[in-house]
Amino acid sequence: MKLTLRVWRQKNADAEGAMSTYEVDGISQDMSFLEMLDTLNEELIEGGDDPVAFDHDCREGICGACSLVINGDAHGPERTTTCQLHMRSFKDGDTIDIEPWRASAFPVIKDLVVDRSAFDRIIQAGGYITAPTGTAPEAHATPVPKPDADFAFEHAECIGCGACVAACPNGAAMLFTSAKINHLNVLPQGAPERETRVLDMVAQMDDEGFGGCTLTGECATACPKGIPLFSITSMNKEWLRANRKVSR
Ligand code: FES
Questions:
Q1: Fewer CB within 10 A of the terminal residue: the chain, N end or C end?
Q2: CB 158 within 8 A of CB 61
Q3: Tell me, what DSSP letter sits at residue 111?
């Protein structure tokens, strides 16, 4: 396949960015989207140009590092991560626009790489449990009802890629924050911090400058791991419950 790529280039956080146009040829439909970008970068390096900076790590849809807006969609036309998107989703002769996540809480560092450390600080505010050290406890010592285990697992699938924020017209981080809270709050292991977790993580989310949620649902549509929209309403319920309990 021969493609025209319109790629966001930005030297650093303070520089002005702009779209640059490149032609790539010989792209196989079996290549992943990131392998296609590798091909572009090899050509740029051979020509003495600066390669396009983009985030990636596992390339297996697990780590959440890859993060591109492709033709206006977070992670592109399929419901998957950018690294698991393949070139068979495009046609020979296509023009593809490639941009970084667009959200004020995710400032651009260089080209297609954004700073997502706001997510780390939300996790630091309460995305943990208090567990005694020592040998592993017997697996059945703390029974967890099957519906609760399923609920926790569904939310634990969040890989923190930030597609929810990039897709949201408000730049809200409610889907990410709710997934991380719900995953732990439903389990007995998460019970000691149940109230402080939701209050502190939501407060940190607000401090980071993410937008407010208006339940448009774009986040859940873009999420490569299928975190459901009701995750947000569950978090809101937890937040109200925690506020009532703390103010008593
Ligand atoms: S590179 Fe790890 S999820 Fe895409």
A1: C
A2: no
A3: T
Taking the C-alpha atoms of residue 98 and residue 68, their distance in angstroms, rounded to an integer, is 7
Distance from C-alpha of 162 to C-alpha of 221, rounded to nearest angstrom: 13
Atom number in ligand 1 closest to CA 161:
3
What would you report as the CA-atom Rg of the chain, rounded to the nearest whole angstrom?
Answer: 20
Contact of 95 with 3, CB cutoff 8 Å: yes
Q: At what angle do helices 174-185 and 117-124 cross, to 10 degrees?
A: 30
**Average pLDDT estimate for 16-27:** 97
CA distance 151 to 183: 7
Q: How far is the centre of ligand 1, averaged over its atoms, from the C-alpha of 248 (Å)?
A: 44
17: Cβ contacts below 8 Å, ≥ 6 apart: 8, 9, 10, 108
Q: Among 33, 37, 54, 59, which is best to mutate for testing ligand 1, by the most ligand atoms less than 8 A from CB?
A: 59
- Tokens encoding 113: 């790489």
pLDDT of residue 181: 98
Q: Is the pLDDT of residue 248 over 70?
A: no
Round to whole Å and give the CA distance between 121 and 206: 11
Which residue, among 122, 209, 213, 224, has the nearest Cα to 175 in the 3D structure?
213
- Give Cα separations from 167 to 1, 180, 200, 237 (angstroms): 28, 19, 25, 24
Report yes or no on whether pTM surpasses 0.90: yes
What sign does the CA torsion over 155, 56, 162, 71 have? negative
Only one residue has tokens 């569950």, namely 234
> Are the CB atoms for 24 and 36 separated by under 8 Å?
yes
> Ligand 1: residues whose CB is within 6 Å?
56-59, 61-66, 81-83
